[in-house]
Amino acid sequence: ICRRSTQLQEVRLRKCRWMREALSCPVCLDLFTPPILVLSCAHNFCKPCLEKILIHQNCNHVNGHFHCPLCRKVSRNYPTVCAFGGEQM
């Protein structure tokens, strides 16, 4: 019984780690701070984090393009604002 309990705890711990990773910004490594921006490549970022990256890349969202900090895909459109629950605004 004790071994099964330990295994269940390990499974729960892995799920918690996965959830934290899924809900964390890859730039600041904290849980997402709304609003969350979604790039055309489907990577998500906190708005302040992504705006800092846009400034660093010397780009403005009106006529510029930028690279996703994770996959380096070029994006020409301003990121979509995503509400909690997966709904796009």
Throw out a few tags for this protein.
89 residues, alpha+beta, Herpes Virus-1, three-stranded antiparallel beta sheet, two-stranded antiparallel ribbon, 2 helices, 5 strands
- Structural class assignment: alpha+beta
Shape: elongated
Biggest β-sheet description: 3 strands, antiparallel
Query: How many discrete structural domains?
Result: 1
**CATH hierarchy, class:** Alpha Beta
Whole-number radius of gyration? 17 Å
- Please list the strands of the largest sheet in the order they lie side by side: 2-1-5
| First-residue to last-residue Cα separation | 48 Å
CATH architecture: 2-Layer Sandwich
Parts with pLDDT < 50 across at least 5 consecutive residues: 85-89
Description of the structure:
This protein is 35% helix and 15% strand. The chain is an alpha+beta fold. The strands form two sheets. It has a three-stranded antiparallel sheet. Strands 3-4 form a two-stranded antiparallel ribbon. β1 (36-38) and β2 (44-46) form a beta hairpin. The longest helix has 21 residues, at 2-22. It starts with a helix and ends in a 7-residue tail after the last strand. Mean pLDDT is 79; it is low at 85-89.
Chain-wise SSE layout:
Elements: H1 2-22, E1 36-38, E2 44-46, H2 47-56, E3 66-67, E4 74-75, E5 80-82
Antiparallel strand pairs: 1-2, 1-5, 3-4
GO molecular function: ubiquitin protein ligase activity; zinc ion binding
Domain RING-type: 25-72
Pfam family, one: zf-RING_UBOX
